[in-house]
Write a structure and sequence with these properties.
Structural class: alpha+beta
Radius of gyration: 20 Å
Shape: elongated
Largest sheet: 4 strands, antiparallel
Strand content: 25-35%
Distance between the termini: 76 Å
Strand order of the largest sheet: 1-2-7-6
Number of strands: 7
Length: 143
């Protein structure tokens, strides 16, 4: 038996994501399948954006970090530690199963240079900034 904490807002957000412009169906399906969401901190320095995601109890090999079409995706799985035995469980508040978080990246980052480090249950993702050429205005003569 699998117990999951019901979050009506998560379900509503997943439904709305399916119809949000610029999102592919596969990304929406990944979000809809998530059983829980890790908490994250997003910060910025002069040279990079930083994401810290809390993933206690998740194994390094169960984490996937990818960048596709300007979206950073963090996903993975946390196994339940509860076994069917004679033990009587009174409360389960921790979340288990699949997780997924996605972040739209600004144009001034280098997807090829994204680095991730996982230590002590915290996933740290560094997204380096790059210089984006400024648009140049060109005068066009009207004849």
């Amino acid at each position: 038996m699998k117990l999951a904490k019901w979050d009506p807002f998560r379900e509503m957000e997943a439904v709305l994501d399916r119809y949000r412009p610029g999102r592919s169906l596969s990304q929406s399906e990944d979000i809809a399948r998530a059983d829980w969401y890790p908490t994250v901190d997003v910060s910025e320095t002069e040279g990079a954006y930083h994401i810290h995601a809390e993933l206690p109890g998740v194994k390094k090999e169960d984490i996937k970090v990818s960048v596709h079409d300007g979206v950073l995706m963090l996903s993975g799985h946390r196994e339940s530690k509860h076994e069917e035995n004679d033990k009587k469980v009174h409360r389960i508040e921790r979340s288990y199963g699949s997780f997924s978080r996605s972040f739209s990246l600004p144009e001034n980052v280098s997807a090829e240079q994204v680095e991730a480090n996982f230590q002590d249950g915290v996933l740290e993702v560094d997204i380096p900034k790059v210089d984006v050429p400024k648009s140049k205005q060109v005068e066009v003569k009207v004849s």
